[in-house]
Design the sequence.
């Protein structure tokens, strides 16, 4: 077991609200425990470039409420090569970093697993992605904030939809995971929700919308489309619906990257603080290649390999059923 | 001069936040003055259909904070015909409506002018459109709220833009008017703003972005594109920039109709209340074919014909200059 | 087992964001299952007064995003008497109500338990209170929204605190439960948090603030005080601190009832929808005197008596520790 | 006329949202014009202490959206003495500052006027205060944001007020100026508004509330009380009302300093950018002892002495009347 004196912390992959709150917790917990902390910019790219900075308590003052990540993030193909990782390790060693805390998604976890095994350096991973599709935690950092951002947009669109009797298709993030779409769709009172995990036939969708129409609800129909839906996104769904269902004026809205930003919700800030704190504690206990997460109200750990090799879709069966029921 | 006992109120054209606050002010001011009020649904379409409702103080309770319009709105081609207006007049007469308050934009004003002249019915118009492009008022209902909606989106996108060193193109509403684009662009700290009123050469834009890059500002460049920009919208601008300027990862965001919704800002609610109040007062003074608006802190009136035949772009020259200056 | 044809739904006790989303889910699930639904106004008071309304799908349109409760709520001493409950039962029977769904807190649950036992009427309870202090669910309706409301206030106060080097005491709701204070305090980056569950000596608080001061953090110190803190609320804490610790300009803010309002967060809307759906399903399964709640991502039930007789404080030990650690 | 090479910029008095956007505009405009800029911390106190910093384009990156002021602010009694100003001038001279831009309220303007006359140093003042009570501008920095903050609080409180049939008294900022109270009260749909500028007899208030009650509106009465109201603030008004008008449960909310914080609205950011830009331009034109402000859509200047010696209450007579009318 390594005697840890300095940890390195970085964010990698897509940024997510709460990453700054998490960096703050990692840094302050480490300092409290008399460790030093190196901030690594731009994830694995920064390891390769030796793009490091010393973190003090002041470095993380007044960042808990900020979206994005002060350590920035990047994609890094070179780290996928043996040579890349060798270069990274040299920089890490030269900086005196004994252990790592990695905040990110699937790709981040995989990179950390490789690196830790190859160079025998302890690493704890924290699930940070708005998609909420990682195994080992009920929630990932940023998911709650992103869902709130989406429902604010839906609430606004419903105002104008209701004033005009229009049919709106709103595309939200989620290439493989329908978590944001399903939750924001339920929370936004959407008439229908199209998910990557479940094929939705256009005819079925039209039948559903027509039925709602028949019940006199036509004035504010909103359909949420996850970007990974099998019909090819909101523009395509709208086009196909329009070909067969002429009644409405239809409009499409692509929320895009604004879903990644914004001040984190209370839920995400608390989650980030707890997981950052727990990650440092796990390192100090001598643990390695673990993820930290929450189950119910408790912080839990999962072996990194298990987290990587399993998928956990958080689409409970009651939620899929209630979409149908509540849209009546 | 008609002895007014009952007024009709309607919203027409694109909906805008603040319309409900304005309806409330018209209704309550009229009731206070012992007039009766008929709510006309869906603008001119509702006149044609006789789609009317009696308005009481209760009808407008708890709506001041709601986006959209409880009276709904629609486009109506039939009202542009002589026959259409004749049918509308019959319904209006049958309902005992002596005078009208119309809330909307250019098209609404033109329809009201025709109708009032043809059937000698008093009408006062209130400028309601997020575009802020009407003559006769410093501000139109909904513009302030829409601009705040846009800067919230920009603020969110800047979080993620800054975390990734990306170039973002954000398309905002404004087919003929750059008012939202210019104000939200300045307020959002955008690097560049493309307006319908002003041709922007792509080469110039690239030169500007490269210069900013050279000054080390590349990490969070945001370009606002009004939908009516002469380069053809944000997707086209992004494509053209990308062909010549390879450095960045670029992303496009189309805010779309969420700009029309949302709870109105304090500014819009106060403006709506003042103008609704003033419209009824003008009718009672015996005025006809006027618009009400604000200049500085004062409510003013403008003859309807003058409002229709003039354009008022609120792009002060200092603002165009300061876009260049502040982006350094 | 009763053959249920009509259910009654009501909200009781303090209102909480998400109650409307929950009413909507109860109504629509019941209608979907071919049941009729009676809305009971003002909780137990409405039962006594026979203040009922027929609920249709339309009754609950466009309410998912609204704070408060469309069925209103009230305190009702008379229902605590045998005579009061007899009168209530007569009204309930006369209205053909076979079963009840009650949304509220501790007092609501106790009333429902009594009533159900006395008159053998099935009842399912849904935990709705911003305090998050009910047994049987990780979260109660409204708690997440209230916590977000508090951190928005903290974020705003931090702006001005930082500009002036001031010490702020912010009082938040929580007579017996420190759940909002602890979570919002962590999420808001507070220097110290005073909870009802834990005595905090003023000297200790001052020592803690002085230490932070010594580390150069004095510019933005914020102390969160739950209203049930044993020092007697924020004004008293501020006064006692001021007597001994003269350095700062101190200000007190009492957030008060704005913590109960606002559009519910996505989390609360989804929770409300799931629990309303589940409550009706439980009634249809023939269950009685249960609460519905969530544990992790799953909906669970708890016998009503167990829920009433147990307390569940959701203050995890790691969270109490990290308040100390993160404030360095 | 001085040949200006370096300007000093500072914020003074109470902080207001938009001050950072204004500092950014001053700095970037000056740099664009090839001037150097010194940031002076904590207003006049920083002049006395020589608490200065060099401002670059980077110093003001990513601050346009932040509440508070990065230059901080303070009250400074010593600057009111001749000796204090002498010391301040020495520091200013030593730092090579040729001219000043001061952002603040009445006290800030008065100090600037004295200093400029005594030491013949050019100064331009920018009205920054949430109270909107300065002569020479339709709007002051921060007022629009503060008003929006207040209506968000009112909207939240109305949710819970409506659910319980309660009477709420909300105290808002404004010791001498009822501008926030009047505008937020109208925008929030308040039943009554108590202003410093106008005595309101408690009996009259009760009569007004009773009348509303008689019209069946009792369920959501909200009374806005400016802190400078002559009845002594919301607690006192509530107490006096309660003594005579027993029907309601009454609650008091003191919003306090959260009204000073928060991300500035689009209106305030644009206003701040324009005035910061204009202030530097005025200095370059050789002007001195002026304020910059807006009238309608145009930037205007006013001699500093005139601004100091006049009061401008922005309570239009139509607004005072419509409070009565709209509360029916």
Sequence:
């Amino acid at each position: 077991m390594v005697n840890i004196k300095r940890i390195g912390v970085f964010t990698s992959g897509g940024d997510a609200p709460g990453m700054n709150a998490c960096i703050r917790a990692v840094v302050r917990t480490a300092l409290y425990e008399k460790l030093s902390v190196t901030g690594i910019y731009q994830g694995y790219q920064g390891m390769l470039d030796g793009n490091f900075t010393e973190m003090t308590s002041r470095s993380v003052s007044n960042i808990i409420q900020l979206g994005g990540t002060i350590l920035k993030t990047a994609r890094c193909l070179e780290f996928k090569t043996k040579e890349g990782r060798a270069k990274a390790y040299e920089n890490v060693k030269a900086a005196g970093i004994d252990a790592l805390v990695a905040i990110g998604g699937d790709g981040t976890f995989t990179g950390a697993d490789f690196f830790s095994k190859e160079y025998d350096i302890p690493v704890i991973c924290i699930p940070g992605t708005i998609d909420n599709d990682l195994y080992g935690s009920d929630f990932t950092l940023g998911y709650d904030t992103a869902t709130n951002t989406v429902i604010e947009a839906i609430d606004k669109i419903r105002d104008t939809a209701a004033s005009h009797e229009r049919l709106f298709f709103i595309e939200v993030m989620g290439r493989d995971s329908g978590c944001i779409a399903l939750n924001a769709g339920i929370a936004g009172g959407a008439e229908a929700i199209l998910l990557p995990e479940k094929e939705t036939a256009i005819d079925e969708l039209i039948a559903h919308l027509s039925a709602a129409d028949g019940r006199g609800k036509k004035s504010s129909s909103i359909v949420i489309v996850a970007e990974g839906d099998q019909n090819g996104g909101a523009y395509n769904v709208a086009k196909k619906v329009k070909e067969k269902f002429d009644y409405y004026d239809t409009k499409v809205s692509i929320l895009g990257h604004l879903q990644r930003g914004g001040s984190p919700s209370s839920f995400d800030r608390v989650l980030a603080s707890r997981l950052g704190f727990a990650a440092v504690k796990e390192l100090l206990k001598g643990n390695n290649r673990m993820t930290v997460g929450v189950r119910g109200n408790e912080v839990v750990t999962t072996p990194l390999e298990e987290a990587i090799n399993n998928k956990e879709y958080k689409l409970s069966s009651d939620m899929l059923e209630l979409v149908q029921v509540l849209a009546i």
Notes: Chain C has a mean pLDDT of 93. Chain C has two domains: 6-142+264-309, 143-260.
